[in-house]
Amino acid sequence: MAIEKEIQSLELDFEDSYELYGQSVLKEIVGAVKNDQEIVKIEVSSAIFIYREYIETKYVTVDVIPFHQVRRCAALLKDEE
Predict the structure, then answer these.
(1) Positive or negative torsion for Cα 19, 22, 24, 27
(2) Angle at 72 between CA 45 and CA 32, to 5 degrees
(3) What is d(CA 26, CA 78) in angstroms, rounded to the nearest whole number?
(4) pTM of the entire structure?
(5) How far apart are CA 23 and CA 9, in angstroms?
């Protein structure tokens, strides 16, 4: 049985041939705003999903990162209160 917890932040170190947004290391924090987009959710299941919401339009986009492109992954989980 899988344990489900919310991810607060995520750091990915990609394999040599892969980059996302021109970066070989990606650091994302839920609630952070970059390029008029807010990180609203990070999910790890069949791949790594990073949900971004445009501030003005509330339009949500999703980055899907396959595991075989990731060399190292570190996540900070949200404490349940």
Answers:
(1) negative
(2) 70
(3) 19
(4) 0.87
(5) 17
Quickly list DSSP for 11-59. Answer: EEEE-TT--BTTBSEEEEETT-EETTEEEEEEEESSSEEEEEEETTT--
CA atoms of 62 and 41, how far apart (whole Å): 9
Can you read off the two tokens belonging to residue 37?
């987009």
Along the 81 residues of the chain, how does pLDDT read in single tens digits?
Answer: 566 789 999 999 999 888 888 889 999 999 999 989 999 999 998 999 999 999 999 999 999 999 999 999 999 998 866
Contact 39, 31 (CB under 8 A): yes
pLDDT of residue 3: 65
What one-letter code names the amino acid at 2? A
